[in-house]
C-alpha cells in the first residue's frame, strides 16, 4: 500500500521533523544544514585563532599553527560543541541526534584533555631522552616526536565556548 503525504506532513519538513521523513530527495541537503556549517566554521575559526593566541603567548607569528593540533582554543572541542548546539537548536534537545552529538562531544573533549595531552607530554620526555644519546647511538638521528597533541582543560573549555557562540550566531543569521 502506498503512503500518502498530507499537507501537515509536507509542512513539517521545514520545522526540523526530518527524523520521520528525511530530507526531501529533490533538495540539496547542504544549503540548509546548520549543524554541519556551524561545525566547519567553528573548526576553521579555532584554527585561525591559534595563530593569534600563539603570537600572544610566544611573541612570534607561526602560520603552521593553522594546520596543527593542540593549542588554544581546541578546534576539536569547538567543532563537536558547535555540532551539538546546532543540532539542539534545530531539532530540539529531546532529539536522538542531539543525544548522539552530546555524547560524541564529551568523548572528543575528554580525549583532547586527557589521552592526547598526556601522549604529548610523554613525547616531550622521550624527545629529551633521545637528545641526550651520544651521536653514535642508533636512535640519536630519529626524527623528534610531535609534542603538541592535546589540550589543557582551559583550551578545551575555550573551544567549547567558541563552538557554542558560532552555532548560536549561525542560527540567528539563518
TrEMBL record:
Lineage top rank: taxon: Eukaryota
Pfam families: DUF212
Keywords: Membrane, Transmembrane, Transmembrane helix
Positions of transmembrane segments: 34-56, 77-110, 148-170
Keyword Disulfide bond: no
The keyword Transmembrane belongs to this UniProt entry's keyword annotation: yes
Protein name as annotated: Acid phosphatase/vanadium-dependent haloperoxidase-related protein
Organism annotation: Thlaspi arvense (Field penny-cress)
